Give the backbone structure.
Amino acid sequence: MKYKVIITGATGMIGKGVLLECLSHPVIDKVLVVNRTKIGMEHPKLQECMLDDFMQPENIRAELSGYDACFFCLGVSSVGMDKDLYEKITFQLTKGFADLLFELNPGMVFNYVSGTGTDSSEKGSINWARVKGKTENYILQKGFGGAWMFRPGMVIPEKGIRAKTRWYNLIYDLLRPFFPLLQKSATITSTSRLGLAMIQTLLAPPQKIHLENPDINQLAKLAAQQ
């Protein structure tokens, strides 16, 4: 079986990693990336859709029908951001996108990238973790054909991918000589593994709903064997 997938956040580090794996994996037939800016890539499987305001996904309604999955990799750092703005961008934006996709493709898989430490109870003391937990819970309760919450911790960029945040790149540059050693750890994942793990949720739905780095790495191994 071949799959058609939507990817958001493909200009970011994680989203770009997911995109590259989808373009190279034989079970993915078509990839629609929804971005604010051009990704600057060409590929037979790749289609690009521009959306200036992600709070208005209705503007591209006609482009979003007929897909098997959405890999939602769009996100922002909470560092230095107003709490209300962070909730708007993280929860309200994702909710609007998920609502429209559920209306158009109710049987699709919806994979959401949050992060390790996300608070499913929505009652903890850390604001970003509560908001991410609220977003996860909304998606899980929506009723999609399948939904998995990806909670990566440390992610190593591969295949020439660079982070959009400058100080992340400074850290990665310092750690680069140690990447081969770090990748042997089950508690550290990579952009390639994360992409493969997303694909594996289509091939064999995992029992765990919240996926941390060790779970992501295990799913990636299975996908790589396909």
User: Anything to note?
Assistant: The CA atoms of residues 54 and 101 lie 13 Å apart. DSSP finds seven helices and nine strands in the chain.
